[in-house]
Amino acid sequence: MECSKCKLGYNIKHSHIHGLQLYKCKDCGRSFTVDFKSTSKPESVKRQGLQMYFEGLGFSSIGRILRLSHVSVLNWIRKYGREIDKIRNDKPVEVMELDELHTYIGQKNYRWVWTCVNRDRREYVDFVVGNRGTETGLKLWKKIGNLAQVIVATDYWKSCNEIVPSQILVQTKISKVIMG
Q: DSSP string covering 55-68, please?
C-alpha cells in the first residue's frame, strides 16, 4: 500500500480511529487509512450517478435507483462540476452539436442551457446558461468557436444562423446525414 500524499510505500501501523487501522508514512509523516468508510461508494457508482444526471434524471430519482441519499448524488455532481476544467479536452473537434434546452426554477422561471457536445468522442465541450436568444448563443460561440474545425450541427432554431458561420453550419435533425 502506498501513501496517499507522496505515493511511496514506506508505512507503519500507527493507531486506530473508528475501528479502522491508521498507517503513518515514514517519508512524509502523513497518517492515512486504506479502508473505506461503510457509507462510501465506489467510483463506478459515482460515475453511474453522473451519467444518469446527464441523461436528465433528477437527484431523487438517481438516489432511489442507486439506493442512496439524493444529497450524496448532489454532492457528487458538485464535486465533478468543480473538477470539469481538469477533464476538458481542448483538441479540435470535427463535428460539434449545438443545442439549447430549458429548465425552470420555482414557478415558470425559465432558464435556458445552451450546450455543445463533441459528436465523435461523445463528450461535453462547454455550456452557458441564459435565455434562448442569440446573445446567449453568442456567449457559447465565444467559448467554443476556436475549437470548431469542420462541422457544427444544430437544429433549425433561428439564432443558430446568426451564431455559427454558414460555411460550417449544418442544420438537421438526422445524425446520419452529417456522419456520412
A: TT--HHHHHHHHTS
